[in-house]
Amino acid sequence: MKTIRFWKTTLLFVAMVGVLGSCDDDDEGKGLEWQSYSNGAYVVNAGNMYSNIDGSLTAIDYATSTAQQKVFAEANQRSLGSTPNDGLVYGSKIYIAVDQSNTIEVIDRTTLRSVAQINTTELMGVAEGKEPRHIIGNDGYVFFTTYGGYVAQVDTMQFRLKQKFKVGNYPEGLLAMGTQIIVANSNYAQGGGNLSVIDTQKGTTDTYTIEGINNPQKLFAVSGNLIVLDWVYYDGSNNEMGESALKLVSLPNRTAQTMVEATYAALTNDGVFYTVANPYTNPTYGVYDTQKNGFAGNSSAQTPFAISEIPESPAGIEVDPVTGHVFILSYHMGDYGYADYNADGYVLEFDQTGQRLHSYKTGVGPTMMFFDAGTRIVAVP
Q1: Is residue 344 a contact partner of residue 53, using CB atoms and an 8 Å limit?
Q2: Which of 63, 174, 240, 324 has the fewest Cβ atoms nearer than 10 Å?
Q3: Bigger pLDDT: 247 or 29?
Q4: CB of 288 within 8 A of CB of 331?
Q5: Which of 297, 208, 293 is CA-nearest to residue 246?
Q6: 219 by DSSP, 3-state: which?
């Protein structure tokens, strides 16, 4: 973690020099402190590859409570590509994993102009780099999974491959815990999914089969505990098996304990989960506070999230890390009572009480959101 400490020290020094250099007499007596901020959010719209509808990026501006469509295409005069799946703001750049195009788009955070387009099959090899899925930033690098069964570690200056790590089959979400990267290997919903732990300092990977984990998708860390969002899987006759739930995992014991039912889940900075269960049949919305209720798997401790407007066809849930506002992504219903996967979707924004604040139009297939949020140095009295 030396790199992170060095960057923070350097950033603090540069910020202080900038602030002090611009001070006048009116600023005398003021101090400096870190303050959190959140300017807005981005919605990753997957499009529909079966209908030849490319994906897009929607930008939500909190200051005006408006959403602007296809901001990447407008800034770059080209499509984002086929089936973008994940994204994040990291440092001065935005990174988007575009699944079927086998690319990582690197975008300037301010102008939204493309800085680089990383071809993952050229970077890692055709088999290893196919279909990038999820991406995170850690210790000055970005890490992303591919359906080739690998995780890539790429530097954020020259976008070169530092290491690639063989993990399990069809890896999805990642989680950084210190110098370790934990990977959810889904095995393409066939059961038998597992977790890999990468030690980036040693360059090693260990894979763990966890009793009760079958189709892991997303990973969370709460007070040093590892929580896995595990989905149902399908047997050879396409029968649905298992459960979709948040599960507390013990890697040393290779065991998992169900906490609450969930298909989609988002976590606040203070350990509260917002969940969506049974999104395709009878959607329910819940809140589970780990600080109050622990991790013992007490489903009755999950309270309903009594939202003031019900989404037509929920497709995901996210939480702004600074404001705590909850966003539920949704498709519109088509003429025959099913989700319209070829039409633009939308996002509903709620406060923590479930009161709807805003509704934003998105592109086709809103799949996930990430936030333009962080901390910065400001002068205070």
Answers
A1: no
A2: 63
A3: 247
A4: no
A5: 297
A6: strand
